[in-house]
Amino acid sequence: MVRDPFADEETPELQTVLDALDDEDCRAIVSVLEEPLTASEISDRSGVPLSTTYRKLELLTESSLLYEGVEVRSDGQHASRYAIDFEEVVISLDEELSLTVDISHRARTPDQRLENLWSEVRKET
Amino acid sequence: MLGANAVLLIGMKTVTLFCGVILTTLTYRAYRRTRAPAMRALCLGIGFVTLGAILGGSLHQFVGMPVAQSVTVEELFTAAGFFILTYSVYTDQPTTTN
Q1: How confident is the model at residue B94 (pLDDT cuts 50, 70, 90)?
Q2: Beta-sheet strands, E only, within B1-98
Q3: How many domains does chain B have?
Q4: Which chain A residue is nearest to residue B86, measuring alpha carbons?
Q5: What CA–CA distance (Å, rounded) separates A16 from A13?
Q6: Which residue has the higher pLDDT, B19 or B90?
Q7: How confident is the model at residue B9 (pLDDT cuts 50, 70, 90)?
Q8: Closest CA–CA distance from residue A2 to any residue of chain B (Å)
Q9: In this structure, is residue B28 part of a structural domain?
Q10: If you measure CA to CA, which chain B residue comes closest to A125?
Q11: What Cα–Cα distance (Å) separates residue B39 from each residue in A46, A86, B19, B44?
Q12: Which domains occur in chain A, in start order?
């Protein structure tokens, strides 16, 4: 199993991840993401109303279960495409007997990795 | 009396070493913090290139190695360094915990 140790965001809150996983609409959204899609495409394919889709996408990206990439179209419009960004969610018990969540992310492309590595190096300056 | 070319060479070497040492230090600290194999490779790669730059000049100056040979040694380190750098972005990292 491959893991990218450089998630751009901090590890998400346990509650956020659980909320996303416990949500039928969120699970429906994940199930249609065989490829990166825009919000309206996701809404069409999953049958989740568009306004709800936007809300759920926010929850899913906040949970770092989805990855939001911005695509600039030829007409200058920005349309975000969302892609699945996790392989498994591990919930474990730490020393203080509280639950912690750890998400294994899918391997990213070499250029994304380099960008992530470099942003880690910059944190040291 | 040093020629203009020698002065320029010393200046460039100094900049290379200075930046190389800074970058090696930063990547090493980032590796200590993240414990990520890719970051270790990044640190080693930059370290090798920097070390090569140091050795290339030193071997000629202090050990009396011919220029051609010392340049070859430098290139060896540079090649190894860039190979490791390339490897660091293509390698699949094993599972680690944050």
Answers
A1: very low
A2: none
A3: 1
A4: A110
A5: 5
A6: B19
A7: confident
A8: 6
A9: yes
A10: B26
A11: 39, 21, 18, 9
A12: 12-119 (1.10.10.10)
- Residue B43 touches partner A, C-beta closer than 8 Å: no
pLDDT over 90 at B15, yes or no:
yes
Residue B74 belongs to domain spanning: 2-90
Q: Is B96 domain-assigned? A: no
**Does residue B95 lie in a domain region?**
no
Q: Which residue of A has its CA nearest to B22?
A: A125
Burial class (CB in 10 A: 0-12, 13-18, 19+), A22: exposed
Q: Do the Cβ atoms of A1 and B95 come within 8 Å?
A: yes
Round to whole Å and give the CA distance between B15 and A121: 20
pLDDT at position B47 over 70? yes
**What is the structure's pLDDT at B97?**
39
B64's CB contacts (< 8 A; 6+ apart) are: none
* Residue A59 pLDDT > 90: yes
Rounded Cα gap, residues A107 and A110, in angstroms: 9
CB contact under 8 A, A117 and B38: yes
Q: Is A5 touching B (CB cutoff 8 A)?
A: yes
